[in-house]
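Researcher: Please translate sequence to structure tokens.
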Amino acid sequence: MTDTAAAPSSPPTGPLEDALASLKRDLSKLSTRLKSVDHTVTTECKALTLRLHYPAFRQRKPMMSELVDTVSTYIVNFCLPRQQVADLNEQYGKVSPEEFTTMFEVLRQEAFDLFKRAHVATNRNGEAGELILYLLTEWLLEAPQIVAKMSLKTNTEMPVHGADGVHVRYCAATGRLYIYWGEAKLYGNLDQAITEAAKSIVNRRAKLTP
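Model: Translation complete:
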């Protein structure tokens, strides 16, 4: 995950901060499925912050099924544009419980179908990693997603290149808007995953640097 600070000519106003704050969601329940590793590892890059997480264990075995069940509940928000989800939420209380449940199930099925089509379109299994990256970024960095990339992946007229996640966070202390460009790699070998992610980040920074 890399971030870019967009420094405006004047500090962002209150409405911008309020708008971004309204996009944040409470994801604290993820703490029961994803644990943090306390460490004192340092690198030569002072700008690098290393955060390590792992699936919760039960009787010395990772609770992968429970983790999958938990993260899958967020697939609607991950795959679909916020406005589409907001339009559904607007119907809560305006229609009968049965009708609202049906509308939600339709939306959820759309999200799952989109997730599956993205997997076929990209011919790889990185979507699961991108979903976890999305949750970690919104949860730990409190930076909401501003682009739902899944719909772009399945658009045959719009090839998708670049970041696996685009998130933003406003810092009141500095008056800056931080843009986070995410990179997700899903490998069975940790060293290979870190190496490939680092390569992708370096290549992206090279493209962003004038």
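Researcher: Any highlights?
Model: The two ends are 20 Å apart (CA to CA).
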